[in-house]
Amino acid sequence: xIRALAQAGYEDVAANIxxxxxxxxxxxxxxxxxxxxxxxxxxxxxxxxxTDPNDYxxxxxxxxxxxxxxxxxxxxxxxxxPRDFLRELxxxxxxxxxxEVGQAQAGTEPEVIIAVGPAFGLSIQQTLSGxxxxxxxxxxxxxxxxxxxxxxxxxxxxxxxxxxxxxxxAQLSGSGVAIGIQSKGTAVIHQRDLAPLENLELFSxxxxxDLDTYQQIGRNAARYAQHRPTTPVxxxxxxxxxxxxxxxxxxxxxxxxxxxxxxxxxxxxxxx
Length: 272
Fold this sequence. Notes:
The protein has 272 residues and is an alpha+beta fold. The chain folds into two domains: 2-74, no CATH class; 82-271, B12-dependent dehydatase associated subunit (Rossmann fold, 3-Layer(aba) Sandwich). Helix content is 36%, strand content 17%. It has helices at 2-7, 11-26, 67-74, 82-92, 133-146, 162-172, 211-225, 241-257; strands at 35-39, 42-47, 98-103, 112-116, 151-155, 177-181, 187-191, 201-203, 267-271. α5 links the parallel β4 (112-116) and β5 (151-155). α5 (133-146) packs parallel to α7 (211-225). The longest helix is centred in the C-terminal third of the chain and has 17 residues, at 241-257. The chain is elongated. 32% of the residues are buried.
């Protein structure tokens, strides 16, 4: 193959393949942390822990990826500009469909409160998995109604943390049970007498939640509110979601934080 490539005019390709065979025989590339460096005139120079040891002597010392190699590592095919995601968020904004009707009051009858985040239905209209937040809210309300309880929707203004959103809702719920949901889709079923970081059920994998799951969350919350036996909602586990969606998650949470108003009490909402 090497000879044929050379005879056909691909001398550079033939030389590289021949050098690869030579490197296999030499074996230097098997050294610890070895790479082939693109040194001038030596495209197959081996850098490793033996030939180029790291001279780390404390913070600020040692090997730093820089120059052409750093540029090469950053130039990945699937890279995208985070600003494009923010522009997509702005493109999905529409007329408000949740109307504030005053300050939320403590309930006196059995109910389940759905406490939404500060940006829910405002500057954020979809979950991480692309579900329309209006449909998500309707699914949870339907699940609550199926178990025979009314649902009440409030907006939490003072925090963007899912646990504290749910905890704040539970303090106002007539049954002491509430669903807290961030605008990116992360949800929790909370109870009044629990500490903020405790919960009845937590649904942290927002990308894996569909409308059926949100409906089941509503049903379970209503069952907890009525002190009925309840089986936790099964949730699909995808360990790659955090890696795939870490940037989108960060941008959505940052957008939610921009709507936080410290000290402002929860608002009662009406679905238009």
